[in-house]
Fold this protein.
Amino acid sequence: MSWNDVIVLLPEIFLTGSICMLLLLDAFSDDRSAMGLHRLSMLALVLTAGLVVWGHGEAATSAFYGMFINDTLAEILILFSILCTAIVLVLASPYLRQRRIAIGEFHTLTLFALLGVMFLVSAGNLVMIYLGLELLTLSSYALVALDRDSRLCSEAAIKYFVLGALSSGMLLYGMSLIYGATGSLDLATINAAIAQTPHMTLMLIGLVFLMVGIAFKFGAVPFHMWLPDVYEGAPTAVTIFISSVSKLAAVGMALRLLDLGLGNMGPYWQQMLAVLAVLSLVIGSLVAIVQTSLKRMLAYSTIGHMGYLFLGLSAGTAFGYASAVFYAVAYSLMATAAFGIILAMSRAGFEADQIADLKGLNQRSPWFAGMMLIVMFSLAGVPPLFGFFAKLLVLQAAIQAGMLWLAIVGAVFAIISAYYYLRVVKVMYFDEPADDTKLAPNSDLSLRWVLSANALVLLVLGVTWSPLLEWCLRAFTS
Amino acid sequence: MTIQLAAFYFFASISVLAALGVIGLRNPVHAVLSLVLTFFSTACIWMLLQAEFLALALIVVYVGAVMVLFLFVVMMLDIQVAETREGFVRYLPIGLGVAVVMLLEILALIGIRAMQVVPPANPARVDGLSNVAWIGQALYTEYLLPFEVAALILTVGMVAAVALTLRRRKGVRHQFPSQQVQAKPRERVRLVSMPAECKEEPKS
C-alpha cells in the first residue's frame, strides 16, 4: 500500500468516514435533529461526488494490487449513483417523518449501500465484486425491512433476503469454479488465461452460475420472481433506491464480470443474454398489462426494461456496452421520477399505489398529472424524451451486431408495452375522478423542486443526449 | 487412483451424505449433528489440500463455537419438552455414530499426511513460510482492501440488527448504576415523628 493507492480511493475513504460520523451523531442526538443529519448526508454526497470528479484522470488507474479500478465506466456509474441517492434522500425525508421510520438509520444504511455500489462498479477482482455486492444487498435488505410495524414490508424483506442469499450463493459457486479453472481471482488475469485453459467445461459451468447471479440482480426472467413483491412491499422511498441505484450497480457488475473477466468467452454469454433478454421482454410487457397496482405495474415494466438493457450488453461491442450504460442511466432517472411521484402523492396511511387512485388526476392536480405524463411517455419511449433515445441506441447496437431478430422482438414489445403506459395517461386525463377534492401539492418544498427537476431532466436529456452517449462511449474505446 | 484421491472421495462422499442428512432428517438435533459432520469432513478435505490453518479455523470456529450454540438453541426451542428430557439416551446412537465417523476421518488423515508429498505449487511453501504466516501476510498486503470492506459489511450487519430490533418502549424502568451508588441514606428512609396512636376498640 502506498499513498498513491490511498489517493485513488479517496472518495470511498471520505464517504466511509462521513458514514461513521453520521452514525455517531445519530446515536447521540434525539429525533428533532433529523434535519441536521439529512443536511450533513447531502453535504457528504456532494463532497464525495466532487472527489470522484477530481480524482478521475484520462487513463484508467488501479490500486491495491488491481483490486480497485478507477476508469471512465466507474466514474459514470458512481456519479449517477450519487445523484440518484441524493434524489432518494431528498424525497424520502418527509415520507419517513410521516410514517415514523428511523431517519438516521435510513440515511446511514443508504450511504452504506452507495459505498457498496462504488466498490462493486470499480472492482478488478472477483473478491471485490462479491464484497461490494454484499455490502449493497445487505444494506438493501435492512432498508426494505425498516418499516418494522408493516407486515407487507417484513414479508418483502424476507423474500428479498432468502432469494438474494440464494443468488449470492450461486454467484459465489460460479466464482469458485472459475477460480478453479484459471487459478486466479484477478479479472484481467482470468480473461488472459481463458485461451489456454484445459478446463473449458468447468469455465462454462462457472459462467452459467455467474449468469444466474447477474440475472437475479437485474431481475431478468426467469429470475424475476422477487422483484414485483419487493417493489410493492418495500416502503416507496426504498423502492426508489432499489429501482435506480441497484440497476446502475448491476450493469457495472455485469460489465466487470463479462467484459473485463470473461470477454474471451463472449460468444457463449452473448447467447445466454439474448435468451434472457427475449424472455424478460415477453414476460415484463405482457404481465404488466393486467396489473392494477401501479407499483407492481412499474415493477414488471422494470423487467421489460432490463430486457432492453440486455439487448445492448449481448451485442458485445463497445457501442453495445455504451448503449447499455446509457440505458441504465436513463432507466434509473425515469424510475426515480416515477416512484417519486407515487411517493409525493401518498400521505400517512394512504400509499396512492393503485392505478385507480390516479383517476381524473388532471382535474385534481395538474402539476402531478403533467409530470406523470412526461415520465410515462419517457418510459414508453415516445420520441422527444430520454427513454426513446435509450431504446433507439440499444436497438441500433443489436442491429449493428447482426442480431436483427432481437431488434425486431424489442421493437414489437416496445409497442405492446406502450399500451399500459398510455393507459395510465388515459386514466389521469379522461376518467372521472373518484372524489372531487383538490389534491394539495406536497408541502415539502425541496421534494417538489427535486421532482420537477427530475422530470425536466428527462425532457432536456431527450433533446441533448449526445454528450452523455459520447461520455459512455469513451468508457469503452480508450 | 492414488491414495490421496481415494481419501478425497471418502471425505467428499461423507460430507455430501451428511449435508443431505441436514436437510433430510426430521429431528432438528440430528440435523445439527450431521451439520457438524459436514463441517468436519470439509475441514478434512482442506487438510488434504494442505490448508491446515483454514481447516483448524473451521473446526474451532464452526464446530467448536457456532454449532454448539446452534445445538443449544435447537434444544431450547424444541416445543415438545418431553422429547428433549429423555435426550441423552435417544441422541446417544447418532451422536456416537458421528463421533466414530470423525475418528475414522482423523485416523485416515494421519495416515495420508504421513505419505503426502508437498505439491510444489503451494504458494506458502514457495515463500518458505508457514501456512498461518502466509495467510496473515496475504490478508494485510494483497487482500487489504477486501479485508477492510468485509469489516464494513460487519458494521452494516450490526447497524441493521440494531435498527430492526431496538424499540424504545414507554414505561420501561432502566437502571442507572451511577445514580444508584450516589444515593444517600437520607434519600431512602425518611423518619417522621408522629404522635402515638392507640387502636380504637371496635364498637360492638
